[in-house]
């Protein structure tokens, strides 16, 4: 399993809405709203890089309230 942390920057006031959405996605193991430069941190577990790519690009970045993400992949 690949373990990846995703730091998400979103529109002001949309943090909880995005957290609620992410909690329902397959592969999302943990998600928390945070304070600071990034608004949300999510822990994702996937089997393949393609699965990870799909989760980030088509499910997270497709949300219009999401402005940017940084991914940190654990080895």
Automatic annotation (TrEMBL):
Species the sequence originates in: Nitrosotalea devaniterrae
Classification of source organism: Archaea, Nitrososphaerota, Nitrososphaeria, Nitrosotaleales, Nitrosotaleaceae
InterPro entries assigned: Dimeric_a/b-barrel (IPR011008), Tscrpt_reg_AsnC/Lrp_C (IPR019887)
Domain of life from the UniProt record: Archaea
Protein name according to UniProt: Transcriptional regulator, AsnC family
Pfam families: AsnC_trans_reg (PF01037)
All residue ranges annotated as the Transcription regulator AsnC/Lrp ligand binding domain in the record: 6-70
């Amino acid at each position: 399993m690949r373990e990846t942390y995703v730091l998400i920057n979103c529109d002001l006031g949309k943090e909880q809405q995005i957290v609620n959405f992410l909690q329902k996605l397959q592969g999302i193991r943990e998600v928390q709203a945070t304070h600071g430069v990034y608004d949300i941190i999510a822990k994702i577990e996937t089997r393949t890089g393609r699965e990870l790519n799909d989760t980030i690009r088509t499910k997270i970045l497709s949300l219009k309230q999401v402005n940017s993400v940084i991914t940190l992949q654990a080895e």
